[in-house]
Amino acid sequence: MFKLLSKMEDAAQSSKGDFAKFGIVIIFMIVVLILSYNSMGGLPTNAFLVIAALFGAYMAMNIGANDVANNVGPAVGSKALTLGGAIVIAGIFEAGGAFIAGGDVVGTIKKGIIDIDAFGGDADSFIWAMMAALLAAGVWLNVATKFGAPVSTTHSIVGGVMGAGIAAGGFSIVSWGTMGKIASSWVISPVLGGIIAALFLFSIKKTMVFKEDKVAAGKFWVPVYVAIMTWAFTTYLTLKGLKKIWPDIVDILVFLPDEKKPSFAIAAIFGLILAAIVYLLLSKRIAGKKDLANTRHSINALFTIPLIFAAALLSFAHGANDVANAIGPLAAISDAVSSGGIASKAAIPLWVMAVGALGIVVGLALYGPKLIKTVGSEITELDQMRAFSIAMAAAITVIIASQLGLPVSSTHIAIGGIFGVGFLREYLQDHKEVIKLEDEERKIEKEENKLEQYRDNLQELLDLPDDRKDKKVYKEIGKLYDMLEKEEKVLEEELRVRESIQKKKYVKRDAFKKIIAAWLVTVPVAAIFSASVYFMIRGMML
C-alpha cells in the first residue's frame, strides 16, 4: 500500500513538472504569436506567417532539446560541468552565437537541395512547402528526443524540405547530387570524428597517463594540448561561427584582407596567436602547482577548465550556424508574404532571429537534460580527458572537412567522437583482458582435469564388486562425491568469470544500434511526413 502511494506521489510530482514545462512553452508560443502578428506592419494579417512562426518556434525548441546536447553532454558526463551549469552556459552562448554571428541573410532553401525555380513563382506553394518542412523536422526531432536518440537537426530540415519539395514539384525538383553528399556525411562525420577523438585520447594516455612520473608529464604536455585546442577552436570559430558577419569585422579591422568570408590562412593565424598566448600563460600557471598528486585523477582535473571553454565555444558556433535550421524556412515565408515572390536568399527580421535564438534556449532548458545525460553518460563512461578528446574532434573534423569540401554533421561528429573513445578503451583493455582470459582458461583447464580425475576415481570404486566394498571404500566414495560437488562449484565460478571478461564492453551496444538506426531514417522519415503535411495543407487551401 505504501509503495503504491509512493508511486502515485512520484507520478504527481512528475505531472506537475510536465505541466509547468508545458505552461512555459505556451507562454513562449503566445510571445511568438504577438511578434509575428505585429511584424505585419501595414500588410493585412496573414495567417500563414503566424502559423509558420509557431512551427519555427517549435522547430527551434526541438533543436535546443536535441542538438545542443552534443556540445555540452561530454563536459557534463565527465563531471567538468554540472547539468545546471551546462544549461546556463549553453543557453547564453547559443543565443549569443545566433544573435551576434547568425548573420543578416539566410539561404531560404537549406543546402540548395531543391530548385526554387520549379515553383514557377507560385508563392503559396512555396510557403506551404516551407511550413511543412518546419513542422515535419520539428516533430521528428521531438520523437528522437523522446527516445533518447541524438540526431542531426540539419538532416531533419533537409529531409523536410526535400519531402515538401517533391510533393510540390516532383522528384526532378531535388538536387540528387547534393543529397548524395549529405548521405555520405552519415559515414564521413562519425568515422572522422571517432578516429580523431581516439587518436587524441591515445596520445594523452601515451604522453601522460602511462608515464611513471605523471606530474612532470602533465606539466609539460597539458599546456601543449590546451594550446592545440585553442588553435583548433579559434580556427573553427573564425571559419564557421564568424563567417556570416565577416564583412562587418573586416570593416572594423581594416588590416584584414577585404574578403566576404574568412580564409583558412587568416583563421589559422588567429588561432596560432591565441594558442601561443594560452601556452605561455598556462605553462607558468601549471608549473607553479605544488599540490598535484602522481595520479590519473590529477591529470584529469587539469582538463576541467579547458572543457568548460570548449563547451561554451561549441555552443556559440552551433548557435551561429544551426539557428538557420529553424529560421531559414521561416525567413523565407516572411519574405514571400511581404514581397509576394520567392527568393533564394532572404533578410532575417529581428523577430525571426529572436524566435530561433530564444526557442533554442527554451527547448534546451526544458527538455535538453534528457539528451545531455544520454550523450554524457549513456553511450560510454567519460572523464575529462575523454571529453577533451571529443571536443577536439568536433573542432578539428570541421576544419579538415571544410578544407577538403567534405559534408559533415556536427551531431554525427560529436557522437562519433564518443564512440571513438569508447572503442579505443575496449581496444586498449582487450590487451589486458587477453592476459586475464589466458589465466582464466588455465584455471578452467586445471579444474576440468581435476573433475575428470575425481570422476575416474569414483567410477573405479563404484565398479568394484560388492564383496570388496568395505567401510573404507564407502568412506572414500562419499569423500569423492563431496570433492566433486566442491570442484563443480569452483568450475562454475571460473566459467562465470571468463564470461564476464568476454562480455566486458565500454560502448553500450543498445545505445549504439539505436543511434545509428535513428541517423539512417532521419532524412526519409522527415521527408515522408513533410510531404504528407504539404498535401494536407494544399488540400485544405484548394
Automatic annotation (TrEMBL):
One of its GO terms (molecular function) is phosphate transmembrane transporter activity. It is a multi-pass membrane protein. It is found in: Membrane. The keyword Transmembrane applies. Residues 428-504 form a coiled coil. The chain crosses the membrane at residues 20-37, 43-61, 81-101, 126-145, 157-177, 183-204, 216-239, 263-282, 302-320, 348-367, 387-406, 412-428, 515-537. It holds the Pfam family PHO4. GO terms for biological process: phosphate ion transmembrane transport. Its main location: membrane. One of its GO terms (cellular component) is membrane. Keywords: Coiled coil, Membrane, Phosphate transport, Transmembrane, Transmembrane helix, Transport. PANTHER family: PHOSPHATE TRANSPORTER (PTHR11101). Belongs to the inorganic phosphate transporter (PiT) (TC 2.A.20) family. This is Phosphate transporter.
